[in-house]
Amino acid sequence: MVLVDAGDALARSVRLDVEPVPTQAERRKMSFILETMGKLGYDAMAVGERDLVLGVEELKKMAAKAKVTLLAANLLDKGGKRPFEQRKLVTAGGVKVGIFAVAEGAELERKGLKVLPALEQANLQARALRKAGADLVVALLHQDYDSALKTAQKLQGVDFAIQSHGGRVSSTQAVGKVVLAAGGERGRRLGRAEFELGGKGPLFDRAEAKSARAQLGHLEQTIGKYKQQQQQASAQAEKDQLERLLKPLAKRRQELLAKMEAEAPAGRNSVLCELVPLDRRVADDPEIAQTAKEVESAAR
Which pTM was predicted? Predict the structure, then answer.
């Protein structure tokens, strides 16, 4: 298993008009989030503008203490050096997974960072990871949705990308040769991607078949209800009206059945993505949950 975060994990917002001065309680909250990520075994975290509220050096110190790798391939400091790691190669289940991150936003420049072109740096990182032996390359795109779409369209050597910025949660989709997924929002959901590798070519998205199966269940209920009403109807006009309603539903049913039967082509790598709600059905770690309550209470 590989755990990553696409950025903006440590604070809810930043203000461009003033230099924020986090309270001690807010600092503790940010530190707690990083410490928890370290305990959970996160492999990497992209750097977003909200993560830089305390500044570059303070963020690096907290991440080092928590043993969380910070990634940002296209950010330079005032001296022209990269303050964060460009990429990381990890092994999971016998598969070498390459990870890198790029970020954009005026807030980053306000922190004294130079932002290099995201696409150019992304393709450089992908080539370097492939050369290092990566079987699967994952891009963390800390960009707004439209910018991430443009970047994903021209990525080379990348299999899977996660977009996170601005709070928008979009559906998984194939963009160019990349499967682009959402990173969730405010820790309310956990993005999960299950890969089946060993083939060639761009990833095949298996989520469409799963979604069709769920839609078909609801559609069958509606069709059954209309057919029952049709059988019970006494007036011919009412029966004809229900028949008109049933025709497009029957067509939609056939479309969903076709999608359900779609499988990854032979010899093709594939992925199945889902956003898992972190609600009451997901058990909390008692110790972490208690600390979280104390940290939240102090930050109010």
Answer: 0.80
